[in-house]
Write a structure and sequence with these properties.
Blueprint lengths: L6 E5 L3 H13 L3 E5 L2 H11 L3 E5 L7 H11 L4 E5 L2 H10 L5 E4 L4 H19 L3 E3 L2 E4 L4 E4 L2 E3 L3 H12 L5 E2 H9 L7 H15 L4 E4 L3 E4 L4
Helix pairs in contact: 1-5, 2-3, 6-7, 6-8, 7-8
Bound molecules: calcium ion (CA).
The site of calcium ion (CA) has 5 residues, from loops.
Length: 224
């Protein structure tokens, strides 16, 4: 069963295709949002935090390849890449771009939905996996964080903050990105909120868990 909260971002610049795909997804019980260019898609990934992205390779502005790189830079998000030709798919697979599945146009909406469901099932199977980062273990399902095997009590916001940084791997997140990912809004005026929560997470988990990258933001510290 598809839950109503499963949100899919459809990145497609051809309105007829975008509407057909979105309509089909909605009729299957998904929530669907359309982005008609690459930059909008990257922004919407940050603010809407969709569960999966259907991504057309050939887009105006930045192409699907670049969109895929940018949205995967800060968070592992399932992607179904849509190409115009089979050789494009071969090229993408060769590059190892990180899409979970590929579909070549023309495709039937039914086929697409089947692929989407399969990718979501695989993603769900991996979602509960805990993140082991040096001396820190983060369990997203249980919302538990341990340092050197000892559970450390964090507030829900502190937990989300260390989780998004750990999920981002080595990527540096700006305060604005962290506001969007943890607090769910894009208001630059909240930057001090980020700083104060970073301080409290460091106090509880150790200074080495979050790195300050001056002029940019914060990154996970990979505590040993
Ligand atoms: Ca296109």
């Amino acid at each position: 069963m598809v839950t109503t909260s499963t949100h899919i971002l459809v990145v497609e610049d051809e309105p007829i295709i975008a509407d057909a795909v979105a309509d089909r997804l909605r009729s299957e019980g998904f929530e669907a949002t359309i982005a008609s260019d690459g930059l909008v898609a990257v922004e919407q990934c940050m603010t809407l935090r969709p569960d999966l992205v259907i991504l057309d390779l050939n887009l105006p502005g930045i192409d699907g390849l670049e969109v895929c790189r940018r949205i995967q830079a800060t968070r592992r998000i399932p992607v179904v890449m849509v190409t115009a030709r089979d050789d494009e798919t071969d090229m993408l697979v060769g590059l190892g771009v990180g899409a979970d599945d590929y579909l070549t146009k023309p495709f039937s909406p039914r086929e697409l939905v089947a692929r989407v469901k399969a990718v979501l099932r695989r993603a769900e199977a991996n979602a509960g996996a805990s993140l082991d980062r040096g001396s820190l273990t983060i369990d997203p399902a249980g919302r538990i964080v341990c340092r050197d095997g000892e559970e450390v009590h964090l507030t829900p916001t502190e937990f989300d903050l260390i989780r998004v940084l750990a999920e981002a791997g080595n990527a540096v997140l700006s305060r604005e990105q962290m506001l969007a990912m943890v607090w769910g809004y894009r208001d630059g005026s909240g930057a001090r909120t980020v700083d104060s929560h970073v301080r409290s997470v460091r106090r509880k988990l150790g200074d080495d868990t979050i790195r300050t990258v001056h002029g940019v933001g914060y990154a996970f510290g990979d505590p040993t």
